[in-house]
Design goal:
Layout: H1 8-15, H2 19-40, H3 44-61, H4 68-89, H5 98-106, H6 110-123, H7 126-137, H8 142-149, H9 153-172
Length: about 170
């Protein structure tokens, strides 16, 4: 079965709030989401739950996705997080607390850790990567980042929080 292709025009219309475009986007994205969930989740029931939750999140947040180019990465990270959340809820994937995560990271050789951190940055969606690099590498303030990206302080803080959470998840896998 071929993956459904979502056109930039459909995405843009949905992002701008066109109800028909949103419905069409959800309908077009559903088979891809379901296929990825089946490959990622531990059970078919979890895959169905993750698919429904991802569609719901897409419906609620399509207007916040800035770029069609970031759409697929964003959507598949939503599905991956949902599968992980469902596995944790079922007790199949233990949650790692901050102390364990720090000990795990500090036990790695420095050269390996540098490569892993670089790979974690590369794995981030661009809008999260930019904020994390500006804050954690360039050491810019929240206000400076907000000005540079022409966005609000709250958006910068939210992106930074999400970027760090995704990096932590990547590094502790």
């Amino acid at each position: 079965m071929r993956a459904a292709v979502i056109s930039p025009n459909l995405f843009e219309a949905a992002r701008l709030g066109d109800p028909q475009a949103i419905a069409s986007l959800l309908k077009t994205a559903q088979p891809n989401i379901r296929r990825y969930a089946r490959a990622t989740c531990r059970s078919s029931a979890d895959a169905e739950d993750a698919t429904q939750e991802a569609l719901w999140i897409l419906f609620r947040h399509v207007g916040t996705i800035r770029s069609w180019l970031a759409f697929s990465a964003w959507l598949f990270s939503v599905v991956r997080r949902e599968c992980l959340r469902l596995a944790r809820k079922a007790g199949l994937a233990p949650a790692i607390d901050d102390g364990e995560a720090e000990a795990l990271l500090l036990s790695r050789p420095e050269a390996d850790l540098r490569l892993d951190v670089a790979a974690a940055f590369e794995a981030l969606p661009p809008h999260y990567r930019d904020v994390a690099l500006m804050r954690d590498v360039k050491e810019m303030t929240i206000d400076e980042i907000a000005v540079a990206l022409d966005t609000t302080r709250q958006a910068v803080k939210a992106r930074l929080h999400r970027a760090r959470a995704l990096m932590r998840e990547y590094l502790t896998r």
